[in-house]
Structure formats: C-alpha cells, structure tokens
Amino acid sequence: MRFVQQARSNPLAWWWGFLTLVSIANIAVWFVLYRALHSEAPASLAERSDIEPMLLFCAAYVFGCAFRSVLPRADVQRICLFDTWLSSVFLGRSVATVAEVCFAAQWMIILNRLGAMAGAETTVNIAWVIVPLIVIAEICSWYAVLTTNYLGNAIENSIWAVAFLVVGIGLCRLLPEFNGPVRLALIIAIIGIVGYLAFLVTVDVPMYLSRWRAGHPHGKLLGLLEGLRDTSTRWVVTHDIAHWKGEIVWMSLYFSAAVWASLALCAVYALDDHLPRYRTEAAVVSWLTAADWPSLQLTASSTR
Prior knowledge:
- By secondary structure, the chain is an all-alpha fold.
- The protein has one domain (2-302).
- 79% of the residues lie in helices and 2% in strands.
- The chain contains 10 helices and 3 strands.
- It has helices at 2-5, 11-39, 45-70, 89-118, 121-147, 150-174, 180-214, 224-233, 241-270, 280-302, and strands at residues 73-74, 79-80, 236-237.
- Strands 1-2-3 form a 3-stranded mixed beta sheet, with helices on one face.
- Helix 4 (89-118) runs parallel beside helix 6 (150-174) and helix 6 runs antiparallel to helix 7.
- The longest helix is centred in the middle third of the chain and has 35 residues, at 180-214.
- The N and C termini lie far apart (87 Å).
C-alpha cells in the first residue's frame, strides 16, 4: 500500500502501525485467555458455559476494535486511510455499535455478579442501567453520523460519561466489601474511570461542541435517509495529519486502554470462584469462628 510506503515521512503511518500492533497483541491476549479458560477441566458443563457469554462479549469488543484500528475512519467527516469498501462509515459504525454494547454488557455482568456476591444492592441496581444508557448513546451516535451533526456526538459522549460515573459509584460501593487484591483491582478500576471521565469532560465533549458551534462545513445537515446512503457509498481517503489531528488521541486510548479493560473484565469474571475468599465479611466471620472455637469446644465437652 502506498500509505505504508510513506511511513518514514508521514507520522500517520507510524500512528497506524501503533494501532495495528496493539490490535494484534490484544487479539493474541484474547486467544491466550480463551485457551487458558478452556484448558481447565470444569467440574460441570454449567461451569464452562458460565464464562462463554463473557468471552463472546470480550471477543466482539477486541475484534471490533481491531477492525476499526486497522481501517480507521472518522465517521462524521467521512475520512479514512484506505480506499476500500471496508472503510465505509456504515460498516465501521455498525461494528462499533455491536462492540460497544457488548462492552457495556461486560460491565453489567461484572457489577451484577460482584454486587450479588457482596449483597450490595446499589451496585446490582447500577448494573441494570449500563446497557440501556449505552444503547441510547449509540442512537445519538448514529444520529450524528447520519446527519453529520456533531451535537449528537457531544450528547453520546456525555451519556458515556454518565454511564461510567454510575459504574464508578457501583465500584466504590464494593470497596468496603472486599480486601486484598480484589480491593486493589477495584481501586485501579476507579482511578481509570476517573481518568476517563476527566478526558471526556475536558477534551472529548468540548471538542464535539466546538465543532457543532462552528457549523456544518457544507452549510446544511443531511436527512436520515440521505445520510444512510452517504455513509454507505462515500468515503474520502486522506493522509493529511491535519484532518486526523482531533481523532488521534481518543482513538489511541480507545483502541488500547479500553480493550485492555475488556480483557481484564473477562479475566476477573473467570476468577469468580476465588473472589469470595477476599470478602471482608468472610474474613471477619472466619476470624470470629477461630476466636470462638476454644469456647465452643469447652461448651461441647461440658454438655456430654
């Protein structure tokens, strides 16, 4: 490809190479995870099937992000790096929609399981609102892509911010319920969410709002049907870094750190049987039982 041959002179080629290498590594990690989980001899078929939905959701996100990394495009602008029908905005947005809903489903499963394990009703309730919020965000995203109205993107990312704000609240509720490595993992996740929210509030949403205020470059927005046809048939190949400047940061973080989060959720879910031992309540009960054991023995002896 001519673009690849321009690597030494075009920083976009280096960026594309970074995205591609990260995607290959992410896919390799997913296969390692899949093989490790399936190499264990399950006690029952139910135990093995329990992890399958999480692996499937993770695969959708990992492979979906890899597809969008290898063939990057900016949806509203209709720009891409490679001239192929695989770069169509309609196809890319469809893949993104499936992948992002699956990512939300992963969070729903994890929060529901941990909340139920800890008896944290707040976390369980939060788990059930994640997917509906992201579905609404996807509708806003499609509106933005079809009509080329950046306001839809601003609303979409604002909803993502709300969704992960409540996810963070759900994780904070779990902090007193676990100790050891589980609590450490919760803290790391919360810190990551705080960083993500800061990026959305200070960079991502303001960027889309500024584009919306600047007005449409062609003077008018597209209708929904007109936009549907446009997303399916028009893509503009550009290797000018000025056209991609606003996309590089969020795409780099999204196709790397967000995918790592998806893989981590899958790994945590696979350790479900080991998590109860790190319950704070379980540790207290274990300590009380050990402390009371001599008196229990004495009581039992005196009643004989």
